[in-house]
Amino acid sequence: MPVLAVVAALLIGAVILLLMDADPIRAYRALYDGAFGTKNTFADTLIKATPLLLVGIGICISFRGGVVNIGGEGQMIVGGLAATALALSMPDARAEVLIPLCLAASFVAGAIWGGIAGVLKAYFNVNEILSTVMLNQIATYWMIYLMSNTLIDPEQISAASRIPETDRLPRQSDLPRIGPWLDSIYEWLGLSSAESSRWAPTLLHIGIIIGLVLAVVVWIFLWRTTVGYRIRAVGKNPRASRYAGIRVKRYMVLSLLLSGGFAGLAGGIQVLGVRHRMSAEGGAIAFTGNAGFNGIVAALFGKLHPLGTIPASILFGALLVGGNKLQRTVQVPSALITVLISLVIIFVVSSDLWSRHRARRRVTLAAQEPASPPGASAAAEMDGVR
Amino acid sequence: MIDQLLDSSVLIGIAASGIRLATPYLYAAIGETFGQRSGVLNLGVEGIMLMGAFSGFWAVYTSGSLALGVLAALLVGLLMGLGTAFINVTLKAEQGISGIGIFLFGLGLSELLFQQSFDGVVTVRGFPKIRVPLLSEVPVIGEIFFQHNLLVYVAFALVPIAWFVLNRTTLGLKIRAVGQNPQAADAMGISVARVRYLTVTFGGMMAAMAGASLSIALLNVFQQNMTAGQGFIAVALVYFGSWRPFGVMAGALLFSTVNALQLWVRTKGIDIPAEYASMAPYLLTILALVLAAQRVDQPAALTKPFERGE
């Protein structure tokens, strides 16, 4: 089904392209070449896929836990801010110390931002969809404030240009590039590669590896640990979970906390691996690239499974990177890619792929079974979670 | 700063612009109230607003007719509302996520169309101010309430109409029944789907009007992403107003007045950082949500797709 959603979106995109007097076949070939044509473009695709993957695995946790986290954008921003502030304040630290510290800080910052929405939902009955949307805006203004005041590059002040951005972060905070490693693996496997198709010159950094490892970790966490099991139980049926003795509110907060943490980490990796400085130029979207929203799509696409989110993120990374090439080749506004992605979202949620309500219905049917005592049906529902 | 603020002309100015700035929130939030009362959360209001803003602007720019501008916005709102209803009611999509899809669709498409049709920023002659005869001459009151453009008056007129429809008509009863207990409504012979299509489509048209009120009445320009989150705030205002039109209006006025105050603070260059002032409305919304959530329960079937035979 997800593949069908992409095909349908691309077909509608083709109609839009035709209406704009552009050749859709040429456009889509440019899209593919732009995403997978060379090692360089493929590396770009993976770099763009990294924040989607990280936000996406966080989304897997929150949606499985029954909370809808639309706050990825804001959580990425505060994560990026935390990593930036820490790196700037420790210019002499060694890389082995600085990078883990910065990434941990970005995770914690994102977790706090998500946790606020979690507490508001669990203890103040505030709809998390709305609170996370508001928190996105607050984070954006906070970033603009910090970029143009507290954290602004001193040179921007003396040059009087006052571009709202920080100084370049210390070099030790740059995430290691993994191109050379990949090349030596290729060599070891006997895949001799021509000079032109080596990974070494690409900008591919360790972020994608972190993302892949964490996807596996989250998969184990959700399906092989008690805490993960309880998160899913609360998501499936909070009432039954309460009867089973699970502290439902706490696990709601935890879902949003973890989900926000992964989005925050995505922001931190974006700063340390790609931008090497934080900038408010171009607003929030210039920093996040909409990954807070697109990560949701990637997760839905991967059927809310961390491992499924991996190929889904790469697909959307490709769409974003290839979209730039498409735009340049057939001269259409880049907003077309936003439209394509929105169509994919709409098709994916409209198809029965994400059949949360169906699952819920099965559960309510079981709960309404008059013959069995409430305890028994609760136990049956808990079995359903496995 | 306080003495400056207490100056009567400043206060009147802030109050008047509070009334004016409430307009887009009113259209969007009153429309959304109907949808939510019937059990559908449309989070895509922002995207429909952007499309309404663009289409209204485009029609006024090309034809010069304000009536055509409003018609174009209503038509686009109708189409997007129908689409939203199809996705959420017929296809039973998860409403929080489909709303983000609709938002991104409107965001992308309005920008795409804008870049295709215009080179850079242009302006139109929007709705002129109407000075209500006699009333606008009343000191203070006249300046605050009776010197606005037509779309402002219509927005406020919608509030009692919405209240009347929801609380005093059969249609309103059906809408509330469908949102509160769709099974019972269905058993009474009310078509749940038809009622929800109606409310969501109406909500779409109102969202588009909200956008048009920005592009052809309040600001008279179109820019990409010009709504800047107002659609999301409108959705929050419905919660704030406890799903009641007058509550929604109170929220919209509170919000827009804080906004007007914030804009005044910024022009005065008072040493509250502009960014913190801009944050205020969002913080206020969260606070308002906390207070509203303690008061009333939401429509029981909100965000839940209806399936027969449950």
CATH topology of chain B: ABC transporter involved in vitamin B12 uptake, BtuC
User: In angstroms, what separates the terminal alpha carbons of chain A?
Assistant: 24 Å
| Count of β-strands of chain B | 2
Spell the H/E element sequence of chain A: HHHHHHHHHHHHHHHHHH
Question: Please, could you describe this protein's structure?
Answer:
The complex is a heterodimer of chains A (386) and B (310). By secondary structure, chain A is mostly helical. Chain A has one domain: ABC transporter involved in vitamin B12 uptake, BtuC (Orthogonal Bundle). In chain A, 74% of the residues lie in helices and 0% in strands. Chain A contains 18 helices and no strands. In chain A, helix 1 runs antiparallel to helix 16. Chain A starts with a helix and ends with a helix. The C terminus of chain A is likely disordered. Chain B is mainly α and 310 residues long. Chain B has a single domain, classed as ABC transporter involved in vitamin B12 uptake, BtuC (Orthogonal Bundle). Chain B is built from 13 helices and 2 strands. A two-stranded antiparallel sheet of chain B has the order 1-2. Chain B is globular, with a radius of gyration of 20 Å. The mean pLDDT of chain B is 89. Chains A and B meet through helix 6, helix 14, helix 16 and helix 17 of A and helix 5, helix 11 and helix 13 of B.
Question: Helices and strands in order, then pairings?
Answer:
The complex is a heterodimer of chains A (386) and B (310).
Chain A: H1 2-19, H2 24-36, H3 39-64, H4 72-89, H5 95-124, H6 128-148, H7 154-158, H8 179-188, H9 207-224, H10 226-236, H11 238-243, H12 248-275, H13 283-288, H14 291-301, H15 306-330, H16 335-350, H17 356-368, H18 374-385
Helix pairs in contact in A: 1-16, 2-3, 2-15, 3-9, 3-10, 3-12, 3-14, 3-15, 4-5, 4-6, 4-12, 4-14, 5-6, 5-12, 9-10, 9-15, 10-12, 14-15, 14-16
Chain B: H1 2-6, H2 8-37, H3 45-63, H4 66-90, H5 95-117, E1 129-131, H6 141-145, E2 147-149, H7 150-168, H8 170-180, H9 182-187, H10 192-218, H11 230-240, H12 245-268, H13 274-295
Antiparallel strand pairs in B: 1-2
